[in-house]
Amino acid sequence: MLEYILRRVLWGVAMLFLVSGVIFVIFYLLPSADPATLRAGRQASPDQIERIRESLGLDRPVFIQYVDYMKQIFFHFDFGYSYQYETSVSSLIFDRLGPTASLTFGAAILWLLMGIPIGIISAVRARSLLDRSTMVISLALISAPVFWLGLISLYLFADDIGLIPILPGAGSYEPLSAGPIAWAGPLILPWTVLAAASAAVYARYLRSDMIDVMGEDYIRTARAKGLPERKVVMKHGVRSAITPVITLLGLDIGVLLAGNAILTESVFNIPGVGRLVLDAIDKADLPLIQGVTLFGAFFIVIFNLVVDIAYAYLDPRVRYDDL
Fold first, then answer.
1. Which of 25, 80, 182, 188 could form a disulfide with 174 if both were Cys (CB 3.0 to 4.6 A apart)?
2. How many domains does the chain have?
3. Would you state the pLDDT for residue 32?
4. Is the pTM of this model over 0.85?
5. Alpha-carbon 158 to chain mean position
6. Does residue 14 belong to any structural domain of this protein?
7. Can you give the residue range of the structural domain that contains 259?
């Protein structure tokens, strides 16, 4: 098991190096605009642009730029300075990471609490009225755009504009330091909206895999041994069928922490990484876009590593098949 984990860690580090190299090529060698011109502004003279180019190191050979770029990232954790905010990119991302992490992990807990039980019940009662009803509702939630669900939830339940004003609306986010109630209250609607589609996806995936697993020979053997149906379902069926859900969970959390909750954060005016990405794209802030992209790659690699380890724990055959 330890050897398997070490291999996965080394593979993750190699992937981070590869991704950082690709990002360097995209943002330094194939830019949409001259970074020095963007930093200088529209009214800058050619001499000012050239001085900024020298200060940014853009006048040096590409290989030297790449070596300095890698040193700054991996030895100093320095992602450069934002053109728009005139401060370090890493500090901007860490300032916005708290709201995004609050939104992501709260929604993940909610969609697991909804999706897994629904998937299990639908699989156990396959083709029943309950199963067909939950699958129709799941399909509707998957098809509904996130921003539409967000606006509908504000229209119905927001305390400032809602028809039933029972929950805090947009722009009311508070950090956890303000207290658990003050922090969780404004996130109930965003959590529900973000979790709705994911819960539906998880339920459908788990239902499909559970139906296949419950027809396997070892399930019939477990039943023939006289094991209670609940134990057969939970210990043998769910454990075998839940691996695709773990894959989805790791990828979803990594992607959302990378700033892909843009629509939810925009609708509910949450000052997270997604809003930061949106502002950076709007202002053509290349260092900030590059920094968020690298952070996103880091989160995705880390959570994929967690998924691999969870796979090896749930199914010991994985760690040997990988040899």
1. 182
2. 1
3. 59
4. no
5. 26
6. no
7. 89-321
Q: Let me know how long the chain is.
A: 323
> Residue 38: inside a domain, yes or no?
no
Residue 6 lies in a domain: no
Q: pLDDT digit string (tens) for 251-302?
A: 888 888 887 888 899 899 999 998 888 888 777 777 888 888 888 888 888 8
CATH number at residue 285: 1.10.3720.10
Give the residues of the chain that fall short of pLDDT 70. Answer: 1, 29-35, 38-39, 41-42, 312, 314-323
